[in-house]
Amino acid sequence: MSSAVNKYAVRVSYLGTNYAGWQRQSDVVSIQQCIEESLLKIGENCTVTGAGRTDAGVHAISQIASFSTQKNWETRRILLAMNAQLPEDIRIMDVWRVDEYFDARRSALWREYRYFIYHGSSCLAPIRPFVWWNRHFWNLDNVRIACRLITGRHDFRAFCKATECPENSVRTLLRVSCKRIGGMTMLQIRGEAFLNNMVRIIVGNLDRVGRGEAAPEWISELLLGMNRIESGMTAPASGLFFWRVGYPLGGIK
């Protein structure tokens, strides 16, 4: 990376269907790679840091990324220049100047994901790529109880991809809630940090509770540090959106 003096944060929205997630990888196309290549095409060879990683197929409404440049860009001009080089399913929505100490990942206070489940024997065709089509209707009262049990600081080992779970699997969730919107359920999950596949495994476990296959209190047992094998399925990526990120006052102006 070249020496750089100007730092920017960008808000990125993307359709994750055609990508192997946020993180740059050697043999597949990622969101980070596409953004870094768009900068390279406008003369800026720099590394982009995202507020949070997303899995393959996961979408984003408001992912935040930061990078430094040598050129002193006007914010609207760099937005237009990057979008001109990016594929249509990745868009830069906003650009801000930030101070040299700002880091999209390390400066974040929390990340919020939202997950959408469409219930019923058929699914509305236009929204099919953006939801988990689940033929079963949930008992929402039991799911809400489970959401309250998940909220807080717990050992989420049972909610992490087994092959990529760190030694310390304790995380803090600040808000877990669900809302029924017609034939669809929306889950809102906000936390300080997340484990690999954590949100999708939470949804898979809530599905077991919602369908009556497990009592809400079963969630509490999982949160005692049980292993992934004791837990439910990993919900599909299609219904998951990286929704927004929180920063200290003045972190992004």
Major sheet: 10 strands, mixed
Structural class: alpha+beta
User: What would CATH call the architecture of the largest domain?
Assistant: 2-Layer Sandwich
CATH fold-level name of the largest domain: Alpha-Beta Plaits
- The tally of helices reads 5
Which range best describes the helical content: under 10%, 10-25%, 25-40%, 40-55%, 55-70% or over 70%?
A: 10-25%
Can you tell me the residue ranges where pLDDT is under 50 for at least 5 consecutive residues?
none
Strand tally: 10
Give the number of domains.
2
Q: Over all CA atoms, what is the radius of gyration?
A: 19 Å
- CATH level-1 class of the largest domain: Alpha Beta
Characterize the overall form.
globular
Q: Look at the structure and give the mean pLDDT.
A: 95
Q: What are the secondary-structure elements, in order, as H or E?
A: EHEEHEEEHEEEHHE
Q: What percentage of the residues does DSSP assign to strands (E)?
A: 25-35%
| CATH level-four homologous superfamily name of the largest domain | Pseudouridine synthase I, catalytic domain, C-terminal subdomain
Amino-to-carboxy terminus distance: 26 Å
The gist of it:
The protein is of the alpha+beta class. The protein has helices spanning 31-41, 75-85, 140-150, 198-210, 218-222; strands at residues 6-14, 49-50, 59-69, 90-97, 110-119, 132-134, 152-155, 170-181, 184-191, 240-246.
Would you mind describing this structure in some detail?
The protein has two domains: 6-107, 2-Layer Sandwich (Alpha-Beta Plaits), CATH 3.30.70.580; 110-244, Alpha-Beta Plaits (2-Layer Sandwich), CATH 3.30.70. The protein is built from five helices and ten strands, in the order E-H-E-E-H-E-E-E-H-E-E-E-H-H-E. Helix 1 (31-41) crosses helix 2 (75-85). It is α+β, with helices and mostly antiparallel strands and 253 residues long. It starts with 5 loop residues before the first strand and ends in a 7-residue tail after the last strand.
